[in-house]
């Protein structure tokens, strides 16, 4: 036996052990060590984060406390320190101007500071003045206590924001004496600001508190200046302040009486508007009640409380001395400030679990990666074949004879689309008549290897489908029968063939979407979109060539129309013309006018009852028609036509452009509107008419046998009528953007917004107001 055939079993054993150690034991040990290391790091990070969160939470709550205390202080400040400022102003003012100083200060403060409701001024002789917000917004009420014939009255004067007096009234004051009121008596024996109990201010339905200050004037009189601050406004302000994510704040006094906070009005009503009964409700505000109990025992500062299994942080903070021993209470769940610590710990645990799972399935992933590599190799081969098919398809399209000749069907284009995308059928559609219809340039059925085309689809039948194409974005549906955009298209064209899925790629041209490529039952991949875009570009070039061909044909028609327009045919007599066309310009056959101004006036039926009202209405209509004739002759309009509920006024019906036509029509519209408004108002009728104007090309002529009738057609007439029908209010003149662009330097307009015109799309409309 040769030495090469001798097998050493110990060598195999050693190799097997090494493979086990290398592929099993070593990865397992490394994984366990990584898991232990991550666990230790996670536990240590959690402890450190928890300690840091506790410290940071207190710091954040302290910062929030200082911020809210400052905000509430700023809110209360005008009511307290304002007394000092006002008393200082009045104290040294001459007696004859004390009221002016008081009203000037009070009026300014009420305009600038919304939480202030009113101001009082009374002296030791019983004189009394008041300034307050009236029930009407923007109006202030000045009240003075006066005496007539031994009886007291309140004199009320109402002033608007511009300082103009609106009205004055007086009412009986009975035996009113300001010196008997709490806000006056509370100041006895002190020169500091004092506060009254909360009470309802009847004129504005505000729950208010009054801060008062006693002082002596240079004339020797003792006066009391008082300010009412709205607790409703303060409560709304506190309700807007958020402590953390879900916390809130309220104000109580040292006795635990509710001053301001959420649901102030409900608290006041429940207590019968008695401030001594508005105690902090432990059922409604249990967390705040616990915070207040901690304040009573330990004083101000942050505290931890627990309610219903949830940990809260409460803070009690004393407001400034001039707030009458008010306490600001704040409460927020501890999770609002420390939630990120819990999230961090959860993320650490999740990270540990992810690493563990990842380590355990690493070997499986390696095997899977090998299989995916093989699959990727096969996919690359398929993609290479697909690229070859696409390149071949592009080459076949490029070498197709007369590809951009619109008289030749695009057979190669649709065939290559089905070949590359695997579609059952590919069709090429082009918009006609300004988007009113689509025509099929070519349709290729791959299974039957047949071409067809030439059939049309109207927008009236497939409105949603047309709109989806005109949005300009490619789209596809798995089941065209159930999609609202493609339901009718599926019923008309796809159901006969039995196809289900549909892909649509719009064809963009210089004027927007000009058609679409449609694929039925395709096998589309994302990398095929560029190929569809390329084929759409080829189709766009064909459509451009088709448009050029149509334009050439249109130019020939226009040349013929211009020749007809030069004919001098007498204008026919017309029974529907209030003002017939001039003899020199009216023609028996159609003429094209490049700059026609058209005014359409539409009327609605007024409600009449009885023969007399009908006769009066006919007489009014006759008068309006005569007025229209007069204005038309004055502005030298071309013609005025009556058609049922409409009057159509036109100017500029000449073969050459008439730049004055639109000006004359605009002037005529303004004059007619004034005449109509005055005549209808004199007849005690509401305005029952609207006007619309457009300016642009049109064509027209005399039609019929003798007597012939002159008529005008074109989009200019249609848009003018659309403007009249779409006017927002009776009596308005609505014009198109073309009219606005020509007349905006001579007339005043208001923007009306956008409108949709069939076959044209969106446009802007304006309202003609007057001449500049």
From TrEMBL:
It comes from the Bacteria. One of its GO terms (cellular component) is plasma membrane. InterPro entries: A/G_cyclase, dCache_1, GAF, GAF-like_dom_sf, Nucleotide_cyclase. GO terms for biological process: cyclic nucleotide biosynthetic process; intracellular signal transduction. It is found in: Cell membrane. The chain crosses the membrane at residues 20-43. It is a multi-pass membrane protein. Keywords: Cell membrane, Kinase, Membrane, Transferase, Transmembrane, Transmembrane helix. One of its GO terms (molecular function) is kinase activity. It holds the Pfam family dCache_1. Residues 600-724 form the Guanylate cyclase domain. The keyword Transmembrane helix applies. Its main location: membrane. PANTHER family: GUANYLATE CYCLASE SOLUBLE SUBUNIT BETA-2 (PTHR45655), SOLUBLE GUANYLATE CYCLASE GCY-32-RELATED (PTHR45655:SF13). This is Histidine kinase. It comes from Acetobacter ascendens.
């Amino acid at each position: 036996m040769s030495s090469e055939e001798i097998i050493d079993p110990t060598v195999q054993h050693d190799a097997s052990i090494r493979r086990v150690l290398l592929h099993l034991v070593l990865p397992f040990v490394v994984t366990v060590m990584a898991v232990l290391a991550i666990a230790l790091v996670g536990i240590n990070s959690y402890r450190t984060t928890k300690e840091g969160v506790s410290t940071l939470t207190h710091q954040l709550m302290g910062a929030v406390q200082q911020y809210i205390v400052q905000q509430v202080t700023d809110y209360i400040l005008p009511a307290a320190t304002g007394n000092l400022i006002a008393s200082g102003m009045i104290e040294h003012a001459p007696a004859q101007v004390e009221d002016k100083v008081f009203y000037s200060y009070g009026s300014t403060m009420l305009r600038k500071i919304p939480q202030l409701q009113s101001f009082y001024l009374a002296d030791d002789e019983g004189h009394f003045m008041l300034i307050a917000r009236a029930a009407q917004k923007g109006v202030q009420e000045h009240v003075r206590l006066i005496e007539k014939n031994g009886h007291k009255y309140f004199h009320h004067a109402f002033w608007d924001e511009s300082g103009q007096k609106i009205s004055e009234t007086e009412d009986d004051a009975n035996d009113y004496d300001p010196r008997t009121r709490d806000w006056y008596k509370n100041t006895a024996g002190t020169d500091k600001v004092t506060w009254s109990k909360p009470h309802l201010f009847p004129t504005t339905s505000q729950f208010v508190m009054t801060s008062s200050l006693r002082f002596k004037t240079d004339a020797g009189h003792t006066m009391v200046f008082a300010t009412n601050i709205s607790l409703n406004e303060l409560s709304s302000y506190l309700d807007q302040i958020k402590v953390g994510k879900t916390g809130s704040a309220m104000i109580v006094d040292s006795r635990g009486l509710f001053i301001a906070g959420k649901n102030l009005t409900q608290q006041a009503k429940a207590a019968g508007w008695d401030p001594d009964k508005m105690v902090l409700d432990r059922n409604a505000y249990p967390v705040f009640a616990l915070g207040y109990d901690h304040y009573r025992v330990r004083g101000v500062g942050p505290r931890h409380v627990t309610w219903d299994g949830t940990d809260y942080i409460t803070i009690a903070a004393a407001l400034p001395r001039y707030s009458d021993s008010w306490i600001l209470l704040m409460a927020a769940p501890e999770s609002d400030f420390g939630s990120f610590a819990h999230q961090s710990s959860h993320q650490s645990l999740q990270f540990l679990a992810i690493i563990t799972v990842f380590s355990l399935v690493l070997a499986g992933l390696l095997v899977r990666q090998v299989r995916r590599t093989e699959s990727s190799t096969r996919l690359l081969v398929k993609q290479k074949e697909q690229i070859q098919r696409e390149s071949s398809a592009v080459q076949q399209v490029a070498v197709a004879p007369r590809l951009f000749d619109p008289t030749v069907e695009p057979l190669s284009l649709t065939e290559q689309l089905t070949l590359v995308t695997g579609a059952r059928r590919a069709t090429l559609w082009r918009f006609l008549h300004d988007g009113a219809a689509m025509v099929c340039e070519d349709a290729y059925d791959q299974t039957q290897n047949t071409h067809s085309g030439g059939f049309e689809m109207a927008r009236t039948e497939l409105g949603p489908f047309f709109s989806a194409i005109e949005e300009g974005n490619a789209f596809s549906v798995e089941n065209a029968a159930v999609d609202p955009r493609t339901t009718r298209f599926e019923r008309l064209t796809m159901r006969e063939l039995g196809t289900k899925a549909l892909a649509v790629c719009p064809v963009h041209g210089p004027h927007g979407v000009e058609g679409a490529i449609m694929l039925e039952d395709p096998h589309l991949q994302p990398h095929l979109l560029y190929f569809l875009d390329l084929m759409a570009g080829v189709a766009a070039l064909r459509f451009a060539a088709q448009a050029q061909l149509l334009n050439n044909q249109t130019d020939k028609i226009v040349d013929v129309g211009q020749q007809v327009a030069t004919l001098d045919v007498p204008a026919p007599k017309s029974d529907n013309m209030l003002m017939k066309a001039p003899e020199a310009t009216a023609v028996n056959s159609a003429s094209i006018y490049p700059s026609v101004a058209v005014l359409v006036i539409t009327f609605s039926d007024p409600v009449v009852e009885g023969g007399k009202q009908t006769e009066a209405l006919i007489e009014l209509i006759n008068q309006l028609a005569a007025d229209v004739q007069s204005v038309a002759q004055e502005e030298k309009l071309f013609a005025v036509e009556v058609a049922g509920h409409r009057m159509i006024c036109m100017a500029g019906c000449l073969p050459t452009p008439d730049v004055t036509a639109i000006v004359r029509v605009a002037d005529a519209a303004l004059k007619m509107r004034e005449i109509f408004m005055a005549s209808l108002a004199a007849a005690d009728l509401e305005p029952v008419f609207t006007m619309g104007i457009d300016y642009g090309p049109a064509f027209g002529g005399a039609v019929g046998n003798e007597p012939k009738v002159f008529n005008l057609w074109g989009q200019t007439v249609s848009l003018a009528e659309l403007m009249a029908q779409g006017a927002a209010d009776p009596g308005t003149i609505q014009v198109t953007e073309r009219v606005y662009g020509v007349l905006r330097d001579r007339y005043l307009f208001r923007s009306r917004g956008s409108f949709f015109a069939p076959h044209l799309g969106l446009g802007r409309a304006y309202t003609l107001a007057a001449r500049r």
